[in-house]
């Protein structure tokens, strides 16, 4: 402001030096001052920003985004706040867990100015305040947990830190949106022990998985063998049944054919000349039988009266005749 008034005065002096006219000099100074007043009285606030105006050293108003008018020489822009979400990195710090293990933890905070007036007058440095409070809250929450619990409770730690910061930030005009733990780093010795534990656990799982696989393999093989034997026995049973049924059917068919043949022979014997034909057939079979005996072995069975073939035929025909008579007899 002072420099702008000084520039207006210099312009007026320059006009007086050039024109040597009091009226022109005064008019030039007035125009310059009007320009200075316009420049000082108009404020254009960007989007997502809030400007705090003090009037004579006292809070007066918060200018919203857009064109605003203030009173020159009386009002001044004391603070300018961004209303955007701001990430703030929290430096790494060493925390002590419940089981007395040192744990290096760092994180990041996302906050936003919710009340520009409180953000201007509630704390001399709200960024430093929330950073220090975040570290304190983090040490407190980690100290309530054992080492193994901290690795699986990141969400719980984040939630508790945000709760503490959000409650404290209300008096500073700050809204803490979230907190994220970036890294949890135990000492080197603890890391080696954890790695050995993880390796042993993975080897244990591998052995269990392998034994389960072998067990399942043996079960499958035994079940397959069982199914194969069952199927084979069923096949053998079906084959035996089919074979027996086939043999029974064959015997029945042969018996029926033999019966039909016998009946036809009986009919032929009863016909004219049937007995003569039967005599001839029996004589042929007699001769063929003895011829076969002579071919198949060294032993020759000879009837008591080899030359009396007619007697043998007569005997056979007597049997046939008796059979015929018995079949013709009334039943």
Please characterize this protein's 3D structure.
It is a single chain. It contains nine helices and eight strands. It is α+β, with helices and mostly antiparallel strands and about 325 residues long. The strands form three sheets. Strands 3-2-5 form a three-stranded antiparallel sheet. It has a three-stranded antiparallel sheet with strand order 6-7-8. Helix 1 runs antiparallel to helix 2. The longest helix is centred in the last third of the chain and has 83 residues. The protein starts with a helix and ends with a helix.
- Straight-line N-to-C gap: 156 Å
Strand content: 15-25%
Please, how many helices? 9
Rg calc: 63 Å
Largest sheet: 3 strands, antiparallel
Structure, briefly:
It contains nine helices and eight strands. With 331 residues, the protein is α+β, with helices and mostly antiparallel strands.
Name the descriptors.
single chain, 331 residues, alpha+beta, 3-stranded antiparallel beta sheet, 19% strand
Record the SSE blueprint:
Layout: H1 2-19, H2 22-41, E1 42-45, E2 49-55, E3 58-63, E4 66-69, E5 75-82, E6 86-96, E7 102-113, H3 116-121, H4 126-142, H5 147-152, H6 154-169, E8 174-185, H7 188-270, H8 274-296, H9 309-328
Antiparallel strand pairs: 1-4, 2-3, 2-5, 6-7, 7-8
Helix pairs in contact: 1-2, 4-6, 8-9
